Amino acid sequence: MADGKTNEHPMGISNREPNEQVAHIQNVYRKITGSWSRRDHKQPGALRKAQLDFDIADDSALQKATSDKGKLKIADERFSVLLLCGTTVMDEEARTRTEAWLSEGGFVIAVAVPEDERDMAGAIYVDTAEEAVALVESRIPKRVEGPGESLHRKIEDADIFLLLPENGALLSMHQPACPDTVLPGSAVYRLRTDRVPQIWDPVNGSMEPIPYKREGEWIEVQAPFTSWPASLIVCTVKNAASTAAEYNHENSPMCPFPAQIGQLEASGKRLELTSGDWRIQVEPTLDNRYGDFDLHGELNGFLPIERRMMSVRLEREETEGEKAGWHKPDLDESNWLTRLWSESSYWHVCHGEEFDELRSVQKVYSNVFGDLAMRSWAGRMGRVPRRFLNLGELKKREFVWAKTFVIAPSGGRYWIRSESNSNITGRINGKEIAWSGGPEEQTAWIELQEGSNELLLRAQAIGNGVIRAGIEVNTIARLPLPKWLFAQRPNLQSSLMNQIESRRDHPFQRVRIVFAARGRAVLYVNGINVTEHGDFNPYIRQGQEEVDVTALWQYGMNEVRVALPEGKGEVFIDGVIELQNGEFVTFFSGENWSDEQGNAPGIHHFSVLQFAETESLWISARPHPLPLVGWLMPESVPEPKPLSFTADPSCNGRPVWLRFPLPVGAKRMRIECEGEMRVWINGTEIAANGGNMEFEPQPAGALAAVRITPCGPITEAAVLLAPIRFETIPVLGSLGDWRTSLCLPHHSGAVEYETVFDTSALEGAELELGHVRGTAEVWLDGIPLGVRLWRPYKFTLPKLPEGKHRLRIRVTNTLGTHYEIGKPTSLVGGNPDVTYWNRDRNEDELGWQEWFPTGGLYGPVGIITDDV
Q1: How many distinct helices (H) and strands (E) make up the chain?
Q2: How big, in percent rounded to 5, are the helix, strand and coil portions of the chain?
Q3: Which of 424, 452, 561, 680 has a CB 3.0–4.6 Å from the CB of 649, allowing a cystine?
Q4: Mean pLDDT of 416-424
């Protein structure tokens, strides 16, 4: 990790080739094998271009390799050729096994190996991956010919072929299906085998004969891709007809999984079911008994249906609000704000040498979550980020300004702390703030007047990247935060230490320490070596450890010392002494430590890693600078609460209006807020009894309007203390995207669709659901037809008499929509900055965002019958 630049992500450092030789080996490897990652799927490599089946073997695998009838045997696999990528260097045992196979006639090709490494006798040396593939094709007879990739395995009594559709017919890695997605058609393959082929379906367990045409030692088959995106062809000497009898659909009992699908073509006669006449029931499925999914409500039962995003506007004039018809369903909302519950505008941010109100933009975040727009990791190790203020991306030494107003309950002396990866200066009511400390933590005492106080901060970037800050103003001063320390005069005897006293009148029962280091560091407690660490990486928990040192602790003075055998390096200590009376005492690395010569240590005065919260190392919780983090971090709720910020003090106390569509079948709604509330449904006011409202069941999209008069210095959607929750019952609705057709933008769970259709007598028909996002389970007249997890969403229908039949379809999506908006991570769904997309991409995957967090039965739903 010492090779990294300031603030460089540890994964970038660890993935970097350490020297030109390793970079060359990696480059040759990629040219031969290609890449399996989503970003590089269009670089398949020479072997995959040639549709050659291969596997990867490292030194540990080669150590176990043996020669078996001219093949290189590794475990149960046998290989005809070994390709060496860019080097012949390997450990001694692996090389011995490889050379032994070569001496028995083995086939080894070394690709782009430097001249001074071409020392393996019997190996064939070539300069390019393409030359290597040409050699393989000239020496190894093909087993498969066809339009797509394939795998072949030969066992004692069968040839097994796994065949994929034509290259390009399958969706790219992670790409979600949309209504325009075309299913791959069947493909013609030629297989080298002297056995009889069968089509095996691992989805439903069927084994059936498949028509084939023999051409000498080859057979030709039409490989289908009907129930899953591959064909498994097993060629045995067994009679195909007798094998098929082992699995008979007619004799098999109905079971919920998998669904049976037939082979009817789309050209058959089709009975289309209407798309807008379905009885729809929303079914929550997230069991929240342990609070796994949300801690804002009760800790048991199923998580209710929620609304988290809404349109927001403030009343500023007497002619606004109800007088202007803000409660009516046909209002134009184009000039309203869009906010997540709990969000508000807290700061004005401006880049440049000076603050310019006209150029500034409002900065929105939540006192519950922080700024979700910048959260690319799961709550920074499952925590609400302390640096919740996103000041944007800057280059080194550039400036950004942030202005807000601090609302003080009374005039007097207050404490302020900033936590940032930038150098911060500032003024309060025009007076310069006398900060102490370094950029990662700066504190000061300030004078405030009762009411609003202007706070203007200037942040200067220490390095290139996103500038983040956390600001707290409080009536009391908090303890300093643990620091990363280093020796200012590094030498081979460098060490950092501190003395911690334990008194007998406060007996302890346990002492624990979290220890982390960048560079080699050894932890000693009272002269005893406890543990050694280095190369800190928070994402894989490397270079850090929690240790119990109770046995080494003593009454009186205790020395905690970290030796730095190489001189350089940074260390972090956070300790806790748990007393027998239930209280605890903390100690941690900071300015009161000293080096081996008694001098003050250096403090690593900027973020060790750009997106790593130091808090992930803390052994005991510290009060958080945001007031409402208790839903995720109950031990970090600040007491007393920090003073409130507001971008515009004139907004405080003004009525807040919220508008949002109701989910399908809504009949009851709960709103938790800070203030007095009035509620309208489709323009009609209803009673709001303690935050609970009941009304007639509504179709999807019925308009709810809420007027809240805040109590306290809060505004916009920050007046909401929890998502708005609903109870629903079945009502008529239509097919489509749950987010729009059913107004369920955050629903992770199930929706049941039910309809009755009239038909003539049918036999051998199929039900086709069209496009589905999620899994689909189907019942007809109460009889289960099975489950489909992916396209094609087809179901074989039993023999049906003439008349009416009741069809029920249950679609269940994933957690994607639940975590897409207003949750502690952006790793799920279509966030363009993380995981699946980033702002610099311009390939076809940019369109994936629309479909990734969706769910629903889109249709069209139809019944297909034979033309006869």
Answers
A1: 10, 60
A2: 10, 40, 50
A3: 452
A4: 93
DSSP 70: T
How many residues are listed for the chain in this entry?
868
Backbone angles phi, psi at 514, to 5 degrees: -95, 130
> Given its phi and psi angles, is residue 749 left (phi above 0), alpha (psi -120 to 50 degrees) or beta?
left
pLDDT at 246: 44
Q: Residue 408 belongs to what H/E stretch?
A: strand 399-408
Q: Output the CA angle 409-411-413, nearest 5 degrees.
A: 105
Written as one letter, the residue type at 668 is: R
Q: How far is CA 537 from the centre of its chain?
A: 19
Instruction: Determine contact, residues 307/663, Cβ cutoff 8 Å.
Output: yes
Cα(685)–Cα(704) distance, rounded to whole angstroms?
10
The 3 state secondary structure assigned to 412-453 is: EEEEEEEEECEEEEEEECCEECCCEEECCEEEEEEEECCEEE
Cα distance between residue 473 and residue 471, in whole Å: 7
pLDDT digits (tens, 9 = 90+) for 156-178: 899 999 999 998 888 887 788 98
Instruction: Report the 10 Å Cβ neighbour count for 181.
Output: 12
Confidence of residue 248 (pLDDT cuts 50, 70, 90): very low
Positive or negative torsion for Cα 471, 587, 612, 640: negative
The separation between CA 796 and the C-alpha centre of its own chain, rounded to angstroms, equals 37
- Average pLDDT along the chain: 89
Q: What average pLDDT does range 564-589 have in this prediction?
A: 95
- C-alpha–C-alpha distance, residues 657 and 655, integer Å: 7
Tell me, what DSSP letter sits at residue 234? E
What is d(CA 202, CA 207) in angstroms, rounded to the nearest whole number? 9
Tokens in use for 131?
A: 């030359």
The residues, ordered by sequence, that sit 6+ positions from 308 with a Cβ below 8 Å of its Cβ are 340, 341, 723, 724, 745, 746, 821, 822
Residue 382 sits at the vertex; the CA angle it makes with 378 and 383, to the nearest 5 degrees, is 110
Task: Kindly indicate the confidence band of residue 521, based on its pLDDT and cuts at 50, 70 and 90.
Answer: very high
The CA-to-CA distance between both ends of the chain, in Å, stands at 71
Structure tokens at 321: 């609000």
Counting residues of the chain whose pLDDT is more than 90, the rounded percentage is: 69
**Which residue spans within 671-797 are E strands per DSSP?**
675-681, 684-686, 692-694, 703-710, 724-728, 731-733, 749-759, 766-768, 771-773, 775-780, 783-788, 794-796
pLDDT tier, 288 (very low <50, low <70, confident <90, very high otherwise):
confident
Q: What angle do CA 233, 235, 236 make, to 5 degrees?
A: 145
Q: How many CB atoms lie within 10 A of CB 719?
A: 26
d(CA 742, CA 280) in angstroms, rounded, equals 9
**From the centroid of its chain, how far is CA 837?**
12
- The first and second tokens of residue 531, run together, are 């543990």
**6 and 421 Cβ atoms separated by less than 8 Å:** no
Side chain identity, residue 516: A
Alpha-carbon distance of 357 to 355, in angstroms, equals: 6
548: its two tokens: 């119990």
- Predicted model pTM: 0.85
What pLDDT score does 243 carry? 44
For 733-767, how does the pLDDT look when each residue is reduced to its tens digit (9 = 90+)?
A: 999 999 999 999 989 999 999 999 999 999 989 99
Residue of 72, 93, 75 whose CA lies nearest to 83: 72
Helix (H, G, I), strand (E, B) or coil at 325: coil
CA atoms within 13 A on the CB side of 322: 10
Q: Which residues of 124-160 are buried (b: 16+ CB within 10 A; e: fewer)?
A: ebbeebebbbebbeeeeeebbebbbbbbbeeeeebbb
Long-range (24+ apart) CB contacts under 8 A made by 500-503 are 500/557, 500/558, 500/560, 500/575, 500/577, 500/587, 501/556, 501/557, 501/558, 502/553, 502/554, 502/555, 502/556, 502/558, 502/577, 503/555
